[in-house]
Amino acid sequence: MSTTNVLFDVPGPRARLRNNILTLVSAVVVLGIAYLLIKGLADKGQLAGKLWEPFLRADVWTGQIIPGLFATLQAAALSAVLALIFGVVFGLGRLSDHAWIRVPSGAVVEFFRAIPLLLLIFFVQAGPATMSGYTLNVPAFAAVVVGLTLYNGSVLAEIFRAGILSVPRGQSEAGYSLGLRKGGVMRLVLLPQAVTAMMPAIVSQMVVLLKDTALGWVIAYEELLNFGLKQIPANFGNLIPSAIVISVVYILINLLLSYLANRLENRSRRSRRTTASVVMAPGAVGVSAGGVE
């Protein structure tokens, strides 16, 4: 008997009929909601051609949307690299046998996970000048990158810790029995298996990080959302159409990121076997998710 038959019973005629009916009803509901949204926009004049015409102009794309997109990707890319480094360092720190490393690492991770990202970005920009009493201008780009690094790095630290702990203990014991030290067991036995288990959660967090760059508009960082909800509507008075176009751009970027990450994950799974269970991204502080406290 195949694994598929054990885990999933083939639906019979009544089950197939019920599934088809539920699918049809769901499609009708979705189409109905879409119709109501489009009708509401049309009644409010939001589908007028003059409001959408700016997005057919090359100067709007080259002068505002593309520069905003570049700023978003620039902040996201740098923050992702720094957050991964932060996560690896403090994730391994939380697994240390030495309390003087483990306890401070845990305190740092829990502290930055507990602060809302928007407040963290604001504190990074306004905090130094407020605490020092001097005029210290922290660039908006730096504030966004530091905030994203600290928050997402703390979440990634929990993902890395959970991923390593998800590898069965017998794997590390086998490594020790071969004469490997703890560093060798971590590098040669645990990490290669844990990376495959952690990949979905890491990808999910990278998508969250990319979307969170939009919070930079609060401190006047000129990224995609800043152009889409402030500068373009100020020039053309088309807030709703602009928000829709910018949302589509975000969706396309995240779909592309997810596609590339899934390709990488599939290649990783084909190239190595792992006994670790898949790790889920941790939720809010105090909520258990995928074995993470």
UniProtKB/TrEMBL annotation:
Entry keywords, A to Z: Cell membrane, Membrane, Transmembrane, Transmembrane helix, Transport
Principal subcellular localisation of the protein: membrane
InterPro entries listed in its UniProt record: AA_ABC_transptr_permease_3TM, ArtM/GltK/GlnP/TcyL/YhdX-like, MetI-like, MetI-like_sf
Membrane topology: Multi-pass membrane protein
ABC transmembrane type-1 domain residues: 69-261
Family label: Belongs to the binding-protein-dependent transport system permease family.
Transmembrane segments: 21-38, 65-93, 114-134, 140-164, 185-208, 239-261
Matching Pfam families: BPD_transp_1
Source organism superkingdom: Bacteria
Compartments, as annotated in UniProt: Cell membrane
Protein name according to UniProt: Amino acid ABC transporter permease
NCBIfam families xrefs: HEQRo_perm_3TM
SUPFAM superfamilies: MetI-like
Keyword Amino-acid biosynthesis: no
